[in-house]
Amino acid sequence: MSDLDGFRKEIRVWLEENCPDEMRKPMNSETDACWGGRNWEFQSEDQKLWLERMVAKGWTAPSWPKEYGGAGLSRAEAKVLAQEMKKIGARAPLHSFGIWMLGPALLKFGSEEQKLRYLPEICRGEIRWCQGYSEPNAGSDLASLATKCEDFPDADGDHFLVNGSKVWTSYADQADWIFCLVRTDNTGKKHHGISFILFDMESEGVSTKPIKLISGRSPFCETFFEDVKVPKENLVGERDKGWSIAKYLLTHEREMIGDSGNLKPVAQMIAEMGIEPNAALQTKITELTIDEWAFAQTMSRMLAEAKAGASLGAKSSFLKYYGTELNKRRYEVMMDAAGYDGLEWESERSNDGQLARLWLRTKGNSIEGGTSEVQLNIIAKHILELPGA
Amino acid sequence: MGLLLTDDEKMLQESAAGFFADKAPVSQLRTLRDERDATGYAQELWADMAEMGFTGVLVSEENGGFDMGFMAAGLIAEQMGRNLSASPFLSSSVLAVTALNAVGDEQAAKMLPEIVSGNMTVALAVDEGSKHNPDAIEMSASPSGNGFKLNGNKAMVVDGHMADQIVVAAQAADGLTLFVVPADAKGLDTQRTIMVDSRNAARMVFENVEVTGEQVLGEVGKGETILSAAFNAGRAILAAEMLGATSHVFEDTNEYLKERKQFGKIIGEFQALQHRLAHLYCEIELARTAVLSALTALDNNPKSAGSFVSMAKAKLGSVAKLAALEAVQLHGGMGMTDELDIGLYLKRIRVAQELFGDADFHMAQLTK
Fold first, then answer.
1. What class does CATH assign to B224-367?
2. Cβ separation B277–A305 shorter than 8 A
3. CATH class of B7-120
4. Are residues B355 and B132 in contact, defined by beta-carbon separation less than 8 angstroms?
5. Domains with residue ranges and CATH for chain A
6. ipTM
7. How much is the pTM?
8. Superfamily the domain B124-221 falls into
9. E strands along A232-304, which residues?
């Protein structure tokens, strides 16, 4: 315990000295985040400085081993770091699907060469990844995906040929590389014959088209592959056996989407709007306050219960389901509270409809990464052990 | 962090689980009900609980107890909830003990060891109307000789019909005051009210009940602080009991869904039912955390634990109700029969929801 206290003190001093003021201000939306990558243009000098300093400490991925760009922190130490950052309102130095999703999968399933090649540049924010999972005909039923991956028809035999398309690919138009589920065999059961491959989005034959959402923003794309040539060394794990990697990665995604632990409580947001709720609204706010608290505490409890470094397994479906449904409830109540003000779409005083756009964005939370209904199916099957689920 | 049980706590949980499943299973409550038992709990169970040290879980060692704290008391209560075990644990070992601990005077030092040994049961008489409301106490304590004269009515006094001593709240000129009154005091009329859950409460009429200054618990006019401590303890422990009952009906229903066949299928194959149970699972996970957090808050800093306790009691109020209602519905017609235990849980949960403040009460507390 005393070691951890010492560690906490060290971190506190370091953060105080190194976290730029600009990076201690709350972000207005996802667009204020630093995503890194080949083409990233820093929004401020402080954003750049903050990333560089955190990278040097290995704290963009604090629990990853040092040889891969992390800091090798234990779960307890990483938690202390997160707590101390939260305390001063420090922003995450890097938002990264590489850190949140691909990294954990590579650490578990990747070859040593792959880890050394990809993980350090992920930690340094030099490469921006996107996730090629859903397809037009494979949404909730992800395993029915059909993007075709076959041997490239030449004598070398060291390349794949990829044809097909993906949809709901987050920020595909801004990503450098994609981790992608493809079908390498369609003769057996649908979970068999799926492979997990990585390739450069600048490869010939890759194109993207942003999808405009009800929020007016376009965080997702359609992504097309036409005769894309991919080196076979970019296959992660075994050919045809990518489904287990896909599922493992999904549990990380679910934890991330369900994670509302750092959200500002609704009661506080409504108070900051200067609204005095009537009794009926107050009841809804209080109900939410209790659930926000109980959910955040439950998330801490489950993470603490899971053995260090272990995945939560089916419990990640609980976090995904409850967290996203809770977030939708939060924004419904905030819209109730905001009244006419919350309906403004284009105006300075509404910050161009910030609340309305966030409200609309949350509708996707319970769809992306597996719908709420799919999560309930997973809970029924793996936790409740109900038949035929 | 308190949300994870220590090895000691796990051991206690296990031994309490074995104890109540063995000594006070649901069938015991059924027998007490069907035989219209005069006390409403098994005397030998209470003696065994004293033997196990459960009666003194919140009592300091110098007063003969085991000083194990609220988490431990909650773990015991959870097992009582699973088995619907009836005993004066909540009234004597939690409410009364916490009130006495808050006072910590000579009188408390005399009573506490008696509670620990199982020789004395104590009931707390506060509410007067049909809803829990410690701010609406009208019973009067008017000066009489060197002491006071108590006049008024009390309702929903848990275990009030068989308690040896009653801690009663009344308004004195200097404010809310608690008095310790023996059950056989002159002018005290006690009516046992058997409640829907087959457990016990009492209505009491105090008519010119004479008490001396020595019977004042703590100081005159200082009753509110003591009551607040006692109720916070009672609410958290009740929430833990509700968690136990909730977990039981949930697991029972989960098993039923794996066995019952209709339309040529195990009914657990139907997605409509799967999703209801899966949602309930999620709510119970939150409820469990809420209880653990409230108990931890009471152990760490009881003075600031009030809002955590209210959140837990409110959350359990809604989740336990949901669990009981889903359990009845998903059991179909069987859920409506007296033969199945589900109904007994539904009834106990209804009482526990109401006791010491329902979800509405606690949500109102939170916005104060």
1. mainly alpha
2. no
3. mainly alpha
4. yes
5. 2-95 (1.10.540.10), 129-242 (2.40.110.10), 259-383 (1.20.140.10)
6. 0.92
7. 0.89
8. Butyryl-CoA Dehydrogenase, subunit A, domain 2 (2.40.110.10)
9. 235-236
Q: Which amino acid is at A238?
A: E
**Closest by Cβ to B315, choosing from A294, A300, A305:** A294
Q: Residue holding tokens 């809770």?
A: A326
Domain boundaries, chain B: 7-120, 124-221, 224-367
Contacts of B285 in chain A (CB under 8 A): 298, 302, 318, 322
Structure tokens at A213: 């959402």
User: Tens digit of pLDDT per residue, chain B (368 long)?
Assistant: 468 899 999 999 999 999 999 999 999 999 999 999 999 999 999 999 999 999 999 999 999 999 999 999 999 999 999 999 999 999 999 999 999 999 999 999 999 999 999 999 999 999 999 999 999 999 999 999 999 999 999 999 999 999 999 999 999 999 999 999 999 999 999 999 999 999 989 999 999 999 999 999 999 999 999 999 999 999 999 999 999 999 999 999 999 999 999 999 999 999 999 999 999 999 999 999 999 999 999 999 988 999 999 999 999 999 999 999 999 999 999 999 999 999 999 999 999 999 999 999 999 999 98
Question: B interface mutation test: which of A298, A300, A378 has the most B CBs within 10 A?
Answer: A298
Question: At A152, which helix (H) or strand (E)?
Answer: none
Tell me the CA distances in angstroms from A200 to A121, A209, A225, B120, one per residue in order. Answer: 14, 17, 12, 78
Q: Tokens representing B181?
A: 């009154």
Specify burial of residue A86 (Cβ count, 10 A radius: 0-12, 13-18, 19+): exposed
Q: Looking at this protein, which amino acid is placed at residue B298?
A: L
